[in-house]
Amino acid sequence: IITLPDGRRFGIVIYVTDFIGAHTKGELVIAKISKLAFDYYSKN
User: What pTM does this model have?
Assistant: First the structure.
């Protein structure tokens, strides 16, 4: 659950299956998706 600057909250779930690559690369992809969602909902 993520709290936005205005106090609203949202949850995000990212399921990863059959990922081929380094564990850290998968974490980076999840972090980027989470940041995109945070930025979008912070502005809207």
Answer: 0.76
